[in-house]
Design a protein that fits this description.
With 492 residues, the protein is α+β, with helices and mostly antiparallel strands. The chain has helices spanning 3-14, 20-27, 31-44, 61-66, 71-79, 92-100, 115-122, 128-139, 147-150, 152-160, 179-186, 199-204, 231-245, 259-262, 294-308, 314-317, 327-336, 383-396, 439-444, 458-461, 481-486, and strands at 47-59, 84-85, 104-107, 110-113, 164-177, 249-250, 256-258, 320-322, 347-356, 368-378, 403-409, 412-422, 427-437, 450-457. β3 and β4 (110-113) form a beta hairpin. α5 crosses α6 (92-100), α5 packs across α7 (115-122) and α8 packs across α10.
Length: 492
């Protein structure tokens, strides 16, 4: 037997039954060593174990931030100064919970405080969820007796918002030695043998005529943390593999892009709101980029003047931007493929990369995100082919409940949006948008084919419990080494 097992049986022979704490104190074993010995001896029938249930409530990193102030509290305090138009409120989580708690009312598009909300804003009333979070942080993983039952509904709300992690686990209440254990102990030699061979033993020859303890490959060891990929990188590789499995080839394009390829070549009007500074990062160095294809510039200019009935500014098209979508890569390859695909089977390609948008950060928005984009070029392609392709892709990720609805994009007609309802966040999550590339664009590119196109976010898929189930997108990039070491794996 292992020395931990011998120590356990030897102690229990004089005091049985014993609690795990008593076993630790009597044997000098650490908790994990005592538990390992008990579980190992249980397999031999050498001990009997009485078990009980315990509940662990662990506050998440996001929960620790919320313990300072919940988003609904911040919203209520801002409304104490003045009413606000609902269209100006960006924090939908805070808005939803403030309304659910009865702190606000919405009338004629304006949000104002109720009496209960005014009490919270003035400090005469405290928010139960934040007080409870504080208690849970102070108590550690083992909550005070009765708190889980007393605050059952509130803890359920915290768990739903991924602010706490609740786990039921079995624990050892007492351990007793059995007749089989006593017999096993009686056969154990008193001389345990040498466990560690020291220099002194080798020098003085004390190891001669001694027995050595057997090496137990199942003995407890320190936890090791092997190298692993960041979850975003790991999942990006999975997505790449799914497109490969579906017969697509991968292409790439520049991150620093001209407005020409990012917007103009995709028939986005030059006065479109997405081009404004609040949505797009414009660069000062280089401020403009060269567009070498003079013939294409002329075609795109003609497309805009005829399509949008307005002047087209070439200097604006040369503006240097951080690309706002990977569809700019698709635009470049439509031009490259113009001659190559005029005969033969459909061409299918995808790209994955970083894109940048000047957005307000929340649980599902980041200023930098990763996007996948794809096109299929061929004859007689319809919207049904696009729907089948994307549903097949999401099915390979375990998402069979994806919904679709008509949408609008300047470069596709007709257009569709793909989304799902996220139970954990109580919100509709948009996965991607797509459609059939407009004939004006394919004509300008010299491409006499039908082109199906789509683009979607990689990071947002990680919110889904069937894939990874991260609480918020900022959590993915907080560089918490402990979280990166112990995080769950990608499920697809």
């Amino acid at each position: 037997m292992h020395e931990y097992e011998v120590k356990t049986l030897d102690f229990l022979a004089g005091k049985s039954p014993a609690s795990l704490d008593e076993l630790q104190a009597g044997t000098g074993l650490a908790k994990d060593q005592a538990m390992w010995a008990a579980e190992s001896l249980l397999k031999y029938g050498a001990v009997s174990v009485k078990r009980g249930a315990s509940r662990s409530i662990q506050v998440s990193e996001e929960g620790r931030r919320y313990a300072k102030e919940f988003p609904e509290e911040a919203l209520v305090r801002s409304l104490a100064k003045k009413k606000e138009k609902i269209s100006n409120i960006r924090d939908q989580i805070g808005l939803s919970w403030a309304k659910r708690n009865g702190w606000i009312t919405i009338s004629n598009g304006e949000v104002s405080l109720t009496n209960e909300g005014a009490k919270l804003a003035s400090g005469s009333k405290q928010y139960q969820l934040r007080e409870l979070l504080g208690k849970l942080i102070d108590s550690g993983p083992e909550p005070p007796a009765g708190i889980a039952d007393r605050y059952k509904d509130a803890i359920a709300d915290l768990a739903k918002r991924k602010l706490v992690d609740m786990r039921e686990r079995s624990q050892i209440e007492s351990i007793s030695i059995t007749k089989a254990g006593a017999l096993l102990l009686s056969k154990e030699p008193k001389e345990r043998g040498i466990g560690v061979l020291t220099k002194e033993m080798i020098k003085n020859g004390a190891w001669h005529d001694k027995q050595f303890k057997p090496y137990d490959i199942n003995a407890p060891t320190d936890v090791s943390y092997p190298a692993r990929l960041h979850p975003v990188r790991e999942f990006t590789n999975r997505i790449r593999q799914k497109w490969f499995e579906m017969g697509f080839i991968e292409v790439e394009g520049p991150i620093i892009e001209s407005a020409f390829w990012n917007f103009d070549a995709l028939f986005s009007p030059q006065d479109h709101p997405t081009r404004e500074m609040q949505d797009t990062f414009y660069l000062s160095n280089p401020k403009q980029l060269t567009i070498e294809d003079v013939e294409l510039i002329g075609k795109v200019k003609k497309m805009h003047i005829q399509g949008w009935k307005e002047d087209w500014n070439e200097q604006l098209a040369r503006s240097s931007v951080l690309r706002t979508h990977t569809t700019s890569v698709s635009a470049r390859y439509m031009k490259k493929l113009a001659k190559a695909v005029e005969s033969g089977s459909p061409t299918k390609m995808f790209s994955i990369g970083s894109v940048f948008r000047n957005e307000t950060m929340d649980y599902k928005h980041l200023a930098e995100l990763r996007q996948y984009d794809g096109i299929i070029v061929g004859d007689n392609l319809t919207l049904s082919n696009l729907i089948h392709t994307l549903k097949s892709f999401y099915s390979r990720l375990g998402l069979d409940d994806v919904k679709l609805a008509p949408s609008y994009f300047p470069f596709t007609e007709p257009s569709l949006g793909f989304f799902y309802y996220d139970e954990a966040h109580g919100d509709i999550i948009e996965l991607c948008g797509g459609g059939i590339i407009r004939k004006e664009i394919t004509a300008a590119m010299g491409l006499n084919k039908t082109v199906l196109a789509w683009g979607g976010g990689v990071d947002r898929l990680l919110l889904n419990d069937k894939i990874f189930g991260v609480g918020t997108l900022p959590e993915l990039y907080k560089n918490d080494i402990a979280w990166l070491r112990t995080r769950g794996g990608i499920k697809v």
